[in-house]
Structures are given as C-alpha cells and as structure tokens.
Design goal:
Histone, subunit A
C-alpha cells in the first residue's frame, strides 16, 4: 500500500486542531489514515455509472404511526402529578 498521507501531515493537522499526540499515536494515526484512504481508492475502482443515487444504503421507509384523533386527558388528570398548579395551569418558577 502506498503512503497517501505522511506523518508530517498528520502532525500539521493535529497542530491546526490544537491536538497533541505522542510519537506512537502519530504513527498509529498515520497508518489508520493511510488504511482509510486506501479503502477509498478501492471504492473508487467500482463502476457506478449505471447506479441511481441513493440517500440510504437500505430501503428505509416511514415507520411513523398514522395520526389518529383520540381522547385527551382531562385537565384535572393532567394537573394531578404537577408539583404546583393553580387549578387551571402548571405553576413554574419565573425565569428571566
């Protein structure tokens, strides 16, 4: 595998990102980045001319339930578990 990114470039990007790596970490990151870029080269070899663009790799579909009108809570039931209420509304601390 040819080297696509050098250790100096990893060091430069780390400095721009205000990150500090040990020599061992720099070496490991260089190897990992080269591995990722090598994989991207392998993907670029694929012929995708006849494929339609897609937004997802799987056939996702909408999984939401249908909207249906149902019974609402009565005001008293909604206020039963409130820490504070005035009989009509929830009472919360004023925040400015």
């Amino acid at each position: 595998m040819s080297e696509k990114i050098a250790r100096d470039e990893v060091r430069h990007v780390a400095r721009l990102a205000r990150l500090e790596f040990s020599a061992t970490q720099e070496e490991r990151l260089t190897e990992q980045m080269n591995s990722i870029l090598g994989y991207m080269d392998k993907l670029n070899e694929l012929d995708t001319a006849g494929l339609a663009p897609m937004s997802h790799a799987t056939g996702l579909r909408n999984v939401f339930r249908d909207d249906a009108i149902g019974d609402s809570l009565k005001r008293e039931q909604a206020l039963d578990n409130a820490p504070a209420d005035d009989g009509i509304n929830f009472v919360v601390p004023k925040i400015i």
